[in-house]
């Protein structure tokens, strides 16, 4: 099966539609969700119309809509295959030395 690839714009629209649908399914008005989340009503209206919102406001809405857990899977940690790999990843990276460089 070939995975369906979405553009960033398509994902933005899907998130907007899902958030609006969840708000409506919970029988909340925009004003009620705004008050519950602390997100300004104008910001919420713009988000539902255009999909544009700050990440902090999106998280506040997700929390108010009881959907915050989904964000914990946004950037999964890569799986570790061996103890050697775990040890290698746990060592802090060294910055390149600036000695010998001219400004």
Describe the 3D structure:
Helix content is 52%, strand content 0%. The protein is mostly helical and 103 residues long. It has a domain at 8-73: lambda repressor-like DNA-binding domains (434 Repressor (Amino-terminal Domain)), CATH 1.10.260.40.
Low-confidence stretches: none
Contiguous helical run count: 5
- Indicate the structural class: mainly alpha
SS strand fraction: under 5%
Overall, the morphology is elongated
The CATH class of the domain at 8-73 turns out to be Mainly Alpha
Question: How would you summarize the topology of this molecule?
Answer:
Elements: H1 8-25, H2 30-37, H3 41-50, H4 55-64, H5 83-90
Helix pairs in contact: 1-3, 2-4
Main attributes?
0% strand; 103 residues; 5 helices; mainly alpha; elongated
Concise structural overview:
The protein has five helices and no strands.
